[in-house]
């Protein structure tokens, strides 16, 4: 998911840099946007699944093999793919409804869905309501699941009497937590920053962090 997520934007960016051309066709833009959303949503869901996995491993270690059985793991994987496809399809169909663009220049190095909808001059309902609904379903709820998992993990870890045991428990979460902070931190900085303080340059730097770094 990470490789495909990065590959949906980086190759085109490299071509643009090498050819000194920043042009992309409408069809290619829709394709890039759809692939970007598909793998971003899969990444998002898998990070939530991984947080749940760590929650079970630390809070219910003796029941881990029973709870996280192969059937549940396959179901969670397929759910991640399904939610990614659903989110991508809704964005794709929403963008197809836009028939009028007030500008043809996107303030980003890839076809960012939010930037693309901002170019619409036809229906303000689409570009305001749809991102909020999808952001809540595919952003807020997964992030809430991660926060809740780590809330339980912290309290369970603090109950461990030995410092070595606490360190071992926290160390299993370190890499996952760093990715979550980088992914969500830069993503939220891009999409939830106030319009008054938002600048295209800062937005592109933040986008570069969570799409490439």
Automatic annotation (TrEMBL):
Bilayer disposition of the protein: Multi-pass membrane protein
Spans traversing the lipid bilayer: 23-52, 72-93, 128-151
One Gene Ontology term, aspect cellular component: plasma membrane
Major site of localization recorded for this protein: membrane
Gene3D superfamilies according to UniProt: Rhodopsin 7-helix transmembrane proteins
GO molecular function terms noted in the UniProt entry: G protein-coupled receptor activity; olfactory receptor activity
Ranges where the G-protein coupled receptors family 1 profile domain occurs: 1-213
Keyword vocabulary terms for this entry: Cell membrane, G-protein coupled receptor, Membrane, Receptor, Transducer, Transmembrane, Transmembrane helix
Subcellular location: Cell membrane
Pfam families for this protein: 7tm_4 (PF13853)
InterPro entries for this protein: GPCR_Rhodpsn, GPCR_Rhodpsn_7TM, Olfact_rcpt
Role, per record: Possible taste receptor.
Protein name (Swiss-Prot/TrEMBL): Olfactory receptor family 7
Protein source organism: Cryptomys hottentotus hottentotus
């Amino acid at each position: 998911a990470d490789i495909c997520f990065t590959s949906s934007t980086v190759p085109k960016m490299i071509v643009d840099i090498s050819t000194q051309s920043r042009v992309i066709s409408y069809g290619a833009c829709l394709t890039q946007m759809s692939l970007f959303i598909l793998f971003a949503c899969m990444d998002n869901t898998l990070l939530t699944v991984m947080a749940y996995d760590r929650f079970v491993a630390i809070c219910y270690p003796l029941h881990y093999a029973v709870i996280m059985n192969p059937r549940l793991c396959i179901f969670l994987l397929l759910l991640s793919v399904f939610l990614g496809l659903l989110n991508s399809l809704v964005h794709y169909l929403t963008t197809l409804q836009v028939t009028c663009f007030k500008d043809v220049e996107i303030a980003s190095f890839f076809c960012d869905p939010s930037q693309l909808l901002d170019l619409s001059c036809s229906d303000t309902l689409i570009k305001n309501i749809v991102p909020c609904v999808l952001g809540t379903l595919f952003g807020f709820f997964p992030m809430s699941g991660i926060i809740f998992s780590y809330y339980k993990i912290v309290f369970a870890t603090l109950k461990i009497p030995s410092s070595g045991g606490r360190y071992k428990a926290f160390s299993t979460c370190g890499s996952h937590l760093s990715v979550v902070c980088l992914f969500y931190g830069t993503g939220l900085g891009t999409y939830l920053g106030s319009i008054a303080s938002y600048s295209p340059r800062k937005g592109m730097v933040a986008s570069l962090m969570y799409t490439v770094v």
